[in-house]
Amino acid sequence: MPEMLSLSNDPILFICLMLAKILVVFIVVVLIVAYATYAERKIIGRMQTRLGPTMTGPLGLLQPIADGLKLFFKEDIIPAQASKLAFILAPMMILVPAFITIAVIPFGGDIVVGGYTMPLQISDLNIGILYILAMAGLGVYGIVLAGWASNNKYSLLGGVRSAAQVISYELAAGLSIIAVFMLSGTLSLRGIVAAQSASVLDWYIFSQPLAFCLFVITSLAEINRTPFDLPEAETELVSGFCTEYSSMKYALFFMAEYANMIVVSAITATLFLGGPAGPFAGPINLLLKIFFFMFLFIWIRATFPRVRYDQLMFMGWKVFLPLALLNIVITGAVVVFL
Amino acid sequence: MIKEFIQGLSITAKHLLPGHSTTVEYPKQKLEPSERFRGLHHLVLEHDREKCVACYLCPTVCPAKCITVEAGEDENGNKYPTVYQIDMLRCIFCGYCVEACPVEAIVMTGTYELANYKREDFCFTKERLLK
Question: Of B8, B9, B16, which is closest to A46 when you measure between CB atoms?
Answer without folding.
Answer: B16
